[in-house]
Specification:
The complex is a heterodimer. Chain A is built from ten helices and one strand. Chain A is mainly alpha-helical. The longest helix of chain A has 26 residues, at 38-63. Chain A is elongated and about 105 Å long. The model of chain A has no long low-confidence stretch (mean pLDDT 88). By secondary structure, chain B is mostly helical. Chain B has a single domain, classed as Cytochrome Bc1 Complex, Chain C (Up-down Bundle), CATH 1.20.810.10. Chain B has nine helices and one strand, in the order ααβααααααα. Chain B has helices at residues 2-13, 16-23, 44-62, 73-82, 87-114, 123-145, 150-164, 170-178, 185-217, and one strand at residues 26-27. In chain B, helix 4 crosses helix 5, helix 6 packs antiparallel against helix 9 (185-217) and helix 7 (150-164) packs antiparallel against helix 8. The chains are: A mainly alpha, B mainly alpha. Chains A and B meet through strand 1, helix 1, helix 3, helix 4 and helix 5 of A and helix 1, helix 2, strand 1, helix 3 and helix 4 of B. Strand 1 (36-37) of chain A pairs antiparallel with strand 1 of chain B, so a sheet runs across the interface. Chain A: The chain crosses the membrane at residues 47-66, 103-125, 137-155. Chain A: It is a multi-pass membrane protein.
């Protein structure tokens, strides 16, 4: 950089007034062999990789919306907690005998502390000049062991978790208010086979869920009452009322326990 | 017109050397997947940054609706998910982006480790990178609580119990994070502040240092 007497500056700043650097890229001859300029050649390639990545990312987002369970209820002590998947290996570690109970400190602090501490200090633990993985077997071996442990622990954690129960315990439960003065409610009460499984309040019992659980249309509800759902254990032909009563009941169920407006 | 604006700014601030330095640096053959397909492993760091940018942008949009208090937090996320136009996409991108950052960062770490790129003179950049890793895990942990649903709440309860089990500083660390004895209103606002202000601030600083060092030292040579 030019310095010294005779320099002129822009106003009272330290920006030189003359001999500004021309805004032209370096000549391509300055990139020997297969070396490329970052702009625009390599950045264009990076953007293409980024675009492909983004397409996959958006497909994932559209195919699987972010999950949301029911609102937090701190009094529900029966809930089995689970952290996000990338913490599972740390969580699983705490389930082994010598890393839990009286030894929690080992599983919660000592082992992760050593592992992450070693990761942080890797440049000083592996000081040799060799860079090839095969030429530094201890470093490579330890890292492979760490990766294998993380994969194994995550796998164990996923395999031992009861995913069906987890989905059930967190599911959003609709607050259904059943209109007990409705004609359809009386029809339901007269059907012993319905009450037997779905309960006297229509909100589910030991053998079957609430009749309002899924958002079926009136026609679908009628179809289910008549034909049952054999896959899930609901028998066909249990309804003993008239076709008209069936229709009233189905409409009531499809409308989440309320008499449809306008009647 | 654009040229005149550029010249006007350049005359006053002398910006050409700065941006020409970024634009004109050389990308060596051994990191260019166009020449060696196996060099795609050098993309992981850039893709991590790409997802981070998406996380920052989607997070900014999420805060337009999100309310960090225990009465409204869940309701606002529910509203965002079910009522707001494209809310499900924005929240979905932030949700999946959190996982993708971890995945891409993990792969980037392995690439740097197995190419021995953390060795002299790049020790400091490795340390900064591992610190970024820790910040990301912190962002994942604090962000998990914010929807205030069942899994969020109880994962945080367990997480803070684990923090509490640390000797000496455990109790202090838990009280600092939870904002008291119980995990409740104070915890949520604290996690929100940590997730939206403290950790992103630290992250931007560390990323700046990371990129400055890469630019200064250049990428590590071929094996």
């Amino acid at each position: 950089m030019h310095r010294g007497k005779g320099m002129k500056f822009v106003g009272d700043s330290r920006v030189p007034a003359e001999n500004r650097m021309p805004n032209i890229p370096k000549d391509y001859s300055e990139y020997p062999g297969k070396t490329e300029p970052f702009w625009p050649n390599f950045l264009l390639r990076e953007w293409m990789v980024g675009a492909v990545f983004l397409v996959g990312y958006l497909c994932l987002t559209v195919a699987h919306p972010a999950p949301l369970e029911r609102v937090a209820d701190p009094t529900d002590s029966g809930y089995i907690p689970l952290p996000d998947w990338y913490f599972l290996f740390l969580y699983q570690l705490l389930k082994y005998t010598y890393a839990s109970g009286d030894y929690t400190v080992i599983g919660a602090v000592v082992i992760p502390g050593i592992a992450f501490g070693a990761l942080l200090l890797a440049p000083w633990l592996d000081r040799g000049p060799e860079r090839r993985p095969v030429k530094r077997p201890i470093a490579t071996g330890l890292m492979l062991l760490a990766v294998a442990s993380i994969i194994f622990l995550t796998w164990e954690s996923v395999a031992t978790h009861d995913w069906e129960k987890a989905a059930q315990q967190g599911a959003i439960v609709d607050d259904v208010e059943v209109d007990e003065s409705a004609e359809a409610y009386a029809i339901y009460q007269s059907q012993q086979s319905c009450i037997g499984c779905h309960g006297g309040d229509m909100l589910g019992g030991a053998a079957a869920p609430s009749v309002f659980q899924s958002d079926y249309s009136k026609e679908e509800v009628m179809e289910i009452i008549v034909n049952g759902v054999p896959d899930k254990g609901m028998p066909a032909g249990q309804f003993a009322g008239t076709d008209e009563e069936l229709e009233i009941l189905a409409e009531f169920i499809a409308n989440d326990g309320q008499v449809p407006a306008g009647e | 017109m654009l040229q005149k604006i550029y010249d006007w700014v350049d005359e006053r601030l002398d910006i050409t050397p700065m941006w020409r330095d970024i634009a004109d640096h050389e990308v060596p053959e051994h990191v260019n997947p166009a020449h060696h397909f196996s060099a795609f492993v050098y993309c992981f760091g850039g893709l991590t940054f790409f997802v981070v940018v998406i996380q920052i942008l989607s997070g900014m949009f999420l805060t337009m609706y999100y309310v960090p208090d225990i009465i409204n937090a869940y309701e606002s996320v529910y509203f965002l998910q079910h009522e707001v136009t494209h809310g499900v996409i924005v929240r979905g991108m932030h949700h999946w982006g959190a996982s993708l950052v971890i995945v891409m960062m993990f792969l980037h770490t392995l690439r740097v480790f197995f190419t021995g790129s953390y060795k002299k003179p790049r020790e400091l950049n490795w340390v900064v990178g591992v610190l970024i890793f820790f910040v990301m895990l912190g962002l994942g942990f604090t962000g998990y609580l914010l929807p205030w649903d069942m899994k969020a709440y109880f994962a945080t309860v367990v997480g803070l119990e684990i923090a509490e089990s640390a000797p000496v500083i455990g109790g202090f660390a838990k009280a600092l994070l939870a904002g008291g004895e119980i995990i409740g209103a104070q915890t949520l606002t604290r996690f929100f502040a940590i997730h939206v202000f403290f950790l992103p601030g630290a992250l931007l600083g560390l990323l700046g240092a990371h990129f400055y060092m890469i630019r200064k030292q250049g990428i590590s040579g071929p094996l």
